[in-house]
Amino acid sequence: VVVVRGVEEGGCVWRDDVTMAAADEVEMTDPWSADFDAAEALPKDKAADAAAVYQKIVNVEDEEADEFLRVKEASIYKLGSYFADARRAEDLAGLVRRTRPFLDKVSKAKAAKLVRTLTGYFLEIPGAAEVAAGLCEEFIEWAKTEKRTYLRQALEARLIGLQLETQNYPAALKLIAPLLKELKKLDDKALLVEVQLLESKAYHSLSNVAKAKAALTAARTAATAMYCPPALQAALDMQSGILLAEEQDFRTAYSYFYESFEGFDSTGVKSRALFALKYMLLSKVILGLADDIAGIMQGKLALKYAGTGLDALRGVAKAHSDRSLKEFERTLRDFKGELGDDPIIKVHLAALYDTLMENNLLRLIEPFSKVEIAHVAELIELPLSEVEVKLSQMILDKKLAGILDQGAGCLIVFDEAAADETYAASLDTIQHMEKVVGALY
Fold first, then answer.
1. CA 139/CA 146 separation, integer angstroms
2. Which of 171, 233, 265, 312 is the least buried, fewest Cβ under 10 Å from its Cβ?
3. What string of DSSP letters covers 230-258?
């Protein structure tokens, strides 16, 4: 069985994707295998009929022959995959709970793999994080009772990711601290890197960039001492790019996003690859290299990700290139889901919009010494109140020399005062005198 460790949507949770179905590794000579084989041979449009057969096998409790247990294990995987594809979170949760007695009949390694895989299916179901978190908490208690330390730690790591997805950051950080201590003692490098990466994401979500960078550095250091799976390396690269983008180093961030995109694409984690590709395009837009976007989108790897998500970034690039606030707003409105749901894109687009608005305002008021605010709002095609607030901010931030005369509804622009070089020249003179005095005495 080839196991690929990857990250599903939201970027907050680690999972184990079994690229070859667990059912395929099982040699089945049990009579139940005939029903299983028949269900497996059904076409995709008969998935519900196949699921009914898997459900029938899973519901059998009194059979304990080795051959049947292998068939039942394969059926559980198949049924869990079906519920995930059908977005049936409650049914999937019920299946996981019903498998608990079965876990006592198989080895600890198989039980751990089964629970991790089934809880990983929740990551494919939008809005199922709360259900999955409750389920993880149940199984963590069970793992403590059964003294299954590795499974408990793996489930705690998954629970942390789910808490990040539901924005319960304090609870996630509270769980991270003791788990990291345990993992460092046990020297479980792979899980240690995952948890440190989750810690970095938690601190970044709380806007504590310094601690986010420290956690990411620790994760990268631990990753150098082990074989780092491509998907895990891609996730580390993506987090590095995100933190560099926070520091406005979009040129370096782009290179990390590119590495991340290639890593996720090669491991088949397409949802995360799409996020990395979006961040690549966003970096190019902010760098003012909108002309490069067409070349990226027509690349061999990027073509299969074509869709509304990339169309949204193309629209932003065009609006920014044309310096058109109206077109920028229209793009944000038309692609609200694609651009507003991702917090990383949302934050940087807000900053880009502010910069674009400031540049447009400075360009419009440049010919005037005194101008009505209503006239400026008309020229820039934005509401009067929004323009007035923005001009106030620019004056307070010293990006614009002037005052607002609210009684007359005007903006009075001051001439830029020439820089007084007296103080600089005085300091220069004093420094040279100090050198002279020092040389003489």
1. 10
2. 171
3. HHHHHHHHHHHHHHHHHTT-HHHHHHHHH
Q: Two tokens at 423?
A: 């103080």
Question: Is the pLDDT higher at 233 or at 304?
Answer: 233
| Helix segments in 42-88, DSSP class H | 47-58, 66-85
Strand partners, 372: 410
Q: Are 94 and 118 in contact (CB under 8 A)?
A: no
User: Which residue, chain included where needed, has tokens 């799976």?
Assistant: 229
Closest by Cα among 91, 93, 77, 73 to 32: 73
Smallest Cα–Cα separation from 206: which of 241, 173, 230? 173
Q: What is the pTM of this model?
A: 0.73
* Cα–Cα distance list, 259 to 75, 86, 195 (Å): 37, 32, 21
Quote the CA–CA distance of 58 and 55 in Å, as a whole number: 5
Contact between residue 263 and residue 229 where contact means Cβ atoms under 8 Å apart: no
What gap in Å lies between CA 261 and CA 277, rounded to an integer?
6
Distance of CA 172 to the CA centre of its chain: 16
Give strand pairing partners of 5: 16
State pLDDT tens for residues 41-82.
Answer: 878 778 888 888 888 888 887 777 778 888 888 888 888 888
pLDDT of residue 419: 65
> What does the alpha-carbon distance between residue 332 and residue 318 come to, in Å, rounded to a whole number?
12
Strands 370-372 and 410-413: antiparallel
Q: DSSP secondary-structure letter at 401?
A: -
Plot region of 253 (φ>0 → left; ψ -120 to 50 → alpha; else → beta): alpha
> Rounded to an integer, what distance in angstroms lies between the CA atom of residue 149 and that of residue 155?
10
Give the C-alpha separation, 180 to 201, whole Å. Answer: 15
